[in-house]
């Protein structure tokens, strides 16, 4: 039988990463950060000078890409061709470019098998965080969640995250980028950011993330 599949979707800065990481650790589940996969594609395209709307080149790139996740201490690291790109893929430029490449159907389709394989390789269960996990990647997930928060709170979280990594950007810039990225992600033709009908929705503007983790864990335990 397959591992227990948990889908966590929502916009940027809703707390998905923090919540998924804590939940994965508590449950002993694997964690698949699908945003990191799109970020790796964007980084590779950037490095190779491939235009973000060049479908033929993007498809060829996907045939060469090697992505692995590795837990180091408390952190989930991303390896692209064996190189740790965990910090590099968080740069604001890569965020915007990831949003661009992720709107190409050829990229989304090309990454489906990889996302599913990384999850199905897990022993006990897997948590996938992204935008279209509950709707497209695993429509039959065992538990689906959609995390939301006000755009101000989401921008503040992202701002603090970047600040801790030594990236100094104004809160206004972070908010503007985020509004743009949310709009692009929600209005694209293929697999837009959208809650699955059967997803449990939580607003992390009114709940501390520790409480969100608690509620998700409770829901999952009931279905395990
Ligand atoms: O979650 P994160 O901010 O790292 O995702 C980066 C970008 O990748 C998003 O803005 C979105 O455009 C894209 N993405 C996606 N589908 C997913 C995960 C991420 O389109 N499942």
Automatic annotation (TrEMBL):
Where in the numbering of this chain does the Cytidylate kinase domain appear? 6-221
User: Which terms are listed as keywords in the entry?
Assistant: ATP-binding, Cytoplasm, Kinase, Nucleotide-binding, Transferase
| Catalytic activity as recorded in UniProt | CMP + ATP = CDP + ADP; dCMP + ATP = dCDP + ADP
The UniProt record lists the keyword Kinase? yes
Which locations, inside or outside the cell, does it occupy? Cytoplasm
Question: Which Pfam families did the record assign?
Answer: Cytidylate_kin
Q: Which residues bind ATP?
A: 10-18
Q: A GO CC term? A: cytosol
Main localization of the protein? Answer: cytoplasm
**Enzyme class of the recorded protein, top EC level:** transferase
Q: Single Gene Ontology BP term?
A: nucleobase-containing small molecule interconversion
Single GO term (MF): ATP binding
User: What EC number(s) does this enzyme carry?
Assistant: 2.7.4.25
What's this protein's family per the entry?
Belongs to the cytidylate kinase family. Type 1 subfamily.
Q: Which NCBIfam families match?
A: cmk
Q: What is this protein called?
A: Cytidylate kinase
- Species name: Stigmatella erecta
Q: Mind giving the lineage of the organism this protein is from?
A: Bacteria, Pseudomonadati, Myxococcota, Myxococcia, Myxococcales
